[in-house]
Amino acid sequence: MRVSQCLTAIAALAVVASAVPAQAKERLTGEAKLAQMLDGRVAGKPVDCLSLTQIRSSEIIDRTAIVYTANDGTLYVNRPSGANFLDDDDILVSEPRNGQACRIDIVRLIDRGSRMPGASIGLNDFVPYPRPPKVAKAN
Predict the structure, then answer these.
(1) Which of 12, 13, 77, 116 has the most crowded CB, counting CB atoms within 10 A?
(2) pLDDT tens track for 2-47
(3) In the sheet that 65-70 helps form, which strands lie side by side, from edge to edge?
(4) Whole-angstrom distance, CA of residue 21 vs CA of residue 18
């Protein structure tokens, strides 16, 4: 009887283990995730600096870019030198001067798990992607 219980438990574990990969969400590449975020938006003229008062949040896109979200919904994409060091699980640390994030600034990455310092990377131009215009509904 004990052997049959073990076999039942092993069979149950095998079923659970085989179901996990099917349910696991496919991880997008950094470029694919960025393209998804920018879908329907058109790039504007790059700017050198962003006022921190207009920035609501920032997000690291793995090995690709840093996306800053402005209060008005505009996404500002910065493809820094050393983008290959960007890890979407890292913590972004910046030390802005004069209340602005600028293309000449250096930002640091910190590993979220170990809290160990990672790479320091230089920012480039901020490319704005405003919200797409709303399409009027035909009646």
Answers:
(1) 77
(2) 545 444 444 444 444 444 444 446 788 999 999 999 999 999 999 9
(3) 55-61, 65-70, 75-78, 126-129
(4) 6
- pTM, entire model: 0.78
Give a yes or no: residue 111 inside a domain: yes
**Residue 67 predicted with pLDDT over 90:** yes
With respect to residue 91, please indicate whether it lies within any of the assigned structural domains. yes
* C-alpha to C-alpha distance for 77 and 126, rounded to whole angstroms: 5
Closest C-alpha among 124, 33, 126 to residue 77: 126
* Secondary-structure breakdown of the chain: helix, strand, coil percentages, each rounded to the nearest 5: 25, 35, 40
Alpha carbon of residue 57 to chain centroid:
11
Question: Does residue 74 contact residue 68 with C-beta atoms inside 8 Å?
Answer: no
